[in-house]
């Protein structure tokens, strides 16, 4: 490979404006489809399209055709068994976050998995309970059915116990979440996840981890703490915990500490030696088995007052119909739950799809999770997404397809119907300890804050604002605040872009911000202004204001000139000015004060009217009668539109007014690098007139610069300026011929 200093390239071509380029290079005519054409195409059915639609709606058809029993089946079996054991434990633990009986968490590891097996496009994520969603569901459950006080006035609650009421709320909410996700999938709005940036998700999940940690302290300490919901709920929970801290159950606390230390230690071993271990050590399962045995042997529940899982039914409960009243009361919370559940699952699925080289479809994922939650909600399941740790187990143990997920559901089925009774003596403190240990990854995201502060402060503000709002206001309001902050940063960056004045890097055709370089050449009388963002209604005024960085305010100068011309005409009419061989001369030596009458400002904004003047006014020279007009030190202005992706109508009007202000003070304006579709829009919107013509558009800055050098040859006699100009022309190898089009070689 050549060293950078020896690499050169040379191009010889004519100087092009947009007009000359279009004259020499014919464009291909492309017929643009009308809305009716898109509508007809969308609803036209062919055999090929029907086949593709079937494969799209049932992705299992696609990967089952390439499934290799010999190479993949054993890996899927090992992965399915490992994931199933973790899913059982996490299902029991995460149900505590939702304030419902533990065995309903097992349903989330079974029913949604069955639907996702047929409809999902990811082959590696493990579908089931997710702690953040469980916590958000739990906030709704405790709001409608609080630990203390009367439940909400819902007809379907009549005749139900408190636990049954909570199950009805949880199942109905899960069903509604599924309806939202399914509806968004059918409407093809999977792109909505793009509005949840990685920064926002990181701050939100960190706040959720804090909520989860606080909510599990009551199980770790063996205390009875009522559930709180709404803003500042975390403060009320901590207050209740600390007021009862002297009543801590020492058996729960010691058991939790032992479990957390062991699980953290073995997980560290798993991470450090994962390349040498065939499968990660299932330490959570091992500790759960040991805890169950110890609890049963010493009768923790009876002898020491330890709260245990209790009786687990060895059968599935009958499905229920969701409550419409619950729908009405939880719709506001259900939508963010649907968004967060999909966003987390899609982000994890995208990571594994890139790693294993296959495609996932965001819209189909919405449909899959929507159907999974509808199916699960009908059978009293928790809202399903994917847990990061569980998906990591499924992928790291060799899982190739969702057959591993199906096998994990079978493991859960065996536990529910066959051996669930073995988990009845399991202390809830052990489940709380397992939940807390699995929060390590989410809590450690806080270390990104210093990095964000150094590299991108608006992103840091989004992270911190989202995290703090979600902690103190609740997860639903926190997500809304985070979205608001994120949109504000987008608006801020688009509304106040970093406009700059460019200069030529000596010896090249490259133009950069003149503040960033020492060795640059700035042509005399020319300013190059770069706009690095779209121009629209929100930033057009900022753009026009930044144009004053070229050294003057064109509108102010235009008004001054029009006032001066009016004054000169008036003085000539009164005989106070006479025409001599040296120009206009005042007949009296007394200074004439400038009129302050600005009653007709519209006339002052029009082009200067030089009619009825005996000579042309030289604005760079001294004017008679002490009339003063600020000088204009440039003759050409180049606007770099290479980063402008669109213009709206408001911006179009503002741009037209700004260009006319410069043109009316004898500054030639050129626009370079403009998208042809923007030029076409300008034509359609009647942008061009007698003052603004299509000839102002050039392909590149260098094309415009060469045209300006030909139109305005430098007249300065300063040696340094001539040296710079000659250096520029020689190094650029510019040849400007009088009889032919100028050509550039560089």
From TrEMBL:
Stretch forming the signal peptide: none
Gene3D superfamilies, A to Z: STAS domain
Subcellular location: Membrane
Residue spans crossing the bilayer: 73-97, 103-120, 127-146, 166-187, 199-221, 241-265, 277-298, 334-354, 403-423, 430-449, 461-488
Any Pfam family hit: STAS
InterPro entries: S04_transporter_CS, SLC26A/SulP_dom, SLC26A/SulP_fam, STAS_dom, STAS_dom_sf
SUPFAM superfamilies documented for this protein: SpoIIaa-like
UniProt GO cellular component terms: membrane
Domain STAS: 516-708
Keyword Transmembrane included in the entry's annotation: yes
Keywords associated with the record: Membrane, Transmembrane, Transmembrane helix
CDD domains assigned: STAS_SulP_like_sulfate_transporter
GO function terms (MF aspect): secondary active sulfate transmembrane transporter activity
UniProt keyword annotation of Coiled coil present: no
Main location (coarse class): membrane
Protein name: Solute carrier family 26 member 3, tandem duplicate 2
